Amino acid sequence: PLTPTAALVTRARARGRGVGAFNVIQLEHAQAIVAGAQAANAPVILQVSENAVRYHGALAPIGRAVLAVAEGATVPVAVHLDHATSTDLVAEAVSLGFGSVMFDASTLEYGQNVAATAKVVARCHAARCWVEAELGEVGGKDGVHAPGVRTDPGEAAAFVEATEVDALAVAVGTSHAMLTRDAALDFELIAALREAVPVPLVLHGSSGVADQDLTTAVERGMTKVNIATHLNAVFSGAVRTALAGDASLVDTRKYLGPARTATAAEVTRLLRILNAA
Ligand code: G3H
Ligand code: ZN
Question: Which are the contacts of 209, defined by CB distance < 8 A and separation ≥ 6?
């Protein structure tokens, strides 16, 4: 069933488990992620990014589809708006019934990030919506990888206190959109952030993290683990194989179906690595 993000993430943090948060672009992504979560018997987060909304031209069609997929699931599924910079889009997600939003003001300097985030938090909390924010920019969305950026634990604690955010995305060595899984995570910093910050921590750019390091990151204190690029690689790889094998193939189900199946299997595998069940 559709489940509030707050419930899902709070429970996972208390038990030292990870929560997989996977990005949805196509409907097939949502179906694959839920099928994979059901096979792992684990809760999961479906997230739609502002970039994906830009691709579709609107939030409602894909957002309503994702909510419907979540409602039909046999495991708890939360629906989240990812990397929003538009407060109008945040408001629309809240009114559609999304359980949470990430408001990303990480490119602003500290004081402006605090002010902008606090405003969004106040509005979202009035509507019982959970808010994630980011401190210390995790680069790579623009193709510029900046794995060297780090979030300071003291500043992170002050940021959470000042904004009252429910979860915090931190920079600990990852970078968005990596195709190789060789990011060097700063595990000592993760442990220090877990000590200093009273809310769940979010790892962005997790496609670049090797299996064993994902497990260790959760052990040291990361809770919500965002994975997008890696699943797209699996999905697109299966599409490529299906199309390459048959030049007369035109029915979209014949290549999107295998892609969905392959993605579901990878989600199941990842959820086990994150100790999410
Ligand atoms: O917000 C989404 C994630 O940070 C995804 O990053 O595409 O590098 O896995 P990724
Ligand atoms: Zn991200």
Answer: 174, 181, 183, 185, 203, 217
